[in-house]
Amino acid sequence: MMRIRIYIFLMLASLTVNAQSKGDQFRNQGDLEKAVIAYKTEMTDASKAKNATYNLACAYALMYQKDSSFHYLSIALKQDNSLWALADNDLISLTDDQRWESIEEQQIKKYQQVNSPLKKPEYAKLLLRLIMRDQALDYQIDMAKRYYMKNAKAPHWYYPLSEMKRKITQGNFANMERLIAKYGWPTYSSVGKLASDGPLLVINHHEKEEIRIKYLPRIKEACLKKQGSCMEYAKIQDRILVNTGKPQIYGMQFHYNSKRELVPFTIKDPEYVDQRRAKIGLEPLKKYLKRKINYDWTVPQKKR
Predict the structure, then answer these.
(1) Residue 281, in any domain of the structure
(2) Given a cut of 90, is residue 137 above it in pLDDT?
(3) How far apart are the C-alpha atoms of 39 and 278, rounded to whole Å?
(4) Among the ranges given (25-39, 77-91, 145-159, 186-200), the one the predictor scored with the smallest mean pLDDT
(5) Contacting residues for 224 by C-beta, under 8 A, at least 6 apart
(6) pLDDT tens column, 227-275
(7) Is the distance from CB of 222 to CB of 232 less than 8 angstroms?
(8) pLDDT of residue 19
(9) What does residue 170 show for φ and ψ, rounded to 5 degrees?
């Protein structure tokens, strides 16, 4: 039970408090049918059309209406040269369709035309799939989080989701190790920033602490060399500390207090946390916590 609660605590860190569109509000309430209607309305507004079209594709994918999803996704990606869609777990239902491979090839080609060519584009594709699978079931688990926040207990349907997530994580980790053995540790220059996050996400979500401890030096080295995510390094470092009963050092891990409000776990020397964060390129904790969990960090900061 404690592991389940901790998992919910950590997954809740992904929630944001930014203003949302009407379609996003319906989606986050679990009403995908109304979200579809709202997104179609938002598409008529030129300032919202691009995001609304992509979100509409995602909503249809979550509903397993694949033809409609592919239709709107192809429109949304016409002017998009990023790789984000290839890692977006909302679209995971599309990946067993032959049309998905064309989407992958198209986006990787456009990305390389705008950015520097990737040294290992095939590796990048596989890592993006790894990220997508790592985030599988997150929408459904988000619904369980919201139920928990409202009712102070996990819904009964959370438990099978949690078990499915655990099995996905195990399989993803085994796949990650095979990829690293074949292609080496991914770096920004070899696979791009987004794809290089794949192993870090998988490692962070692994159920065993020794796995995070094993890979931490490698993750830290990549961060310090500016060839890997310092954000993910900080999350993993803090998770290790919290899970081994020690104060965190970057403020990246949260839990519920007695009022069911998200608050950061205890931070070592909290008056110096911004100095530590700045050393690895992270924004001030006050700004981060406000954006992530709507928490007001008020500890005055010092420098040594």
Answers:
(1) no
(2) no
(3) 39
(4) 145-159
(5) 280
(6) 999 999 999 999 999 999 999 999 999 998 888 889 999 999 999 999 9
(7) no
(8) 53
(9) -60, -45
pTM beyond 0.70: the answer is: yes
| Alpha carbon distance 236, 243 (integer Å) | 10
28 located within any domain = yes
**CA dist list (Å): 189 to 117, 159, 186:** 9, 40, 8
The count of other CB atoms within 10 Å of the CB of residue 182 is 9
Identify whether the C-beta of residue 7 lies closer than 8 Å to the C-beta of residue 285.
no
Residue in the structure block whose two tokens are 């094993």: 214
**One-letter identity of residue 49:** A
Q: How far apart are CA 246 and CA 267, in angstroms?
A: 9
How many residues does this entry show for the chain?
Answer: 304
> Model confidence over 210-225: pLDDT tens digits?
999 999 999 999 999 9
Question: What is the span of the domain harbouring residue 56?
Answer: 2-207
Domain count, the chain: 1
Residue 5 has pLDDT above 60, yes or no: no
In a domain, 76, yes or no: yes
The verdict on residue 252 lying in a domain is no
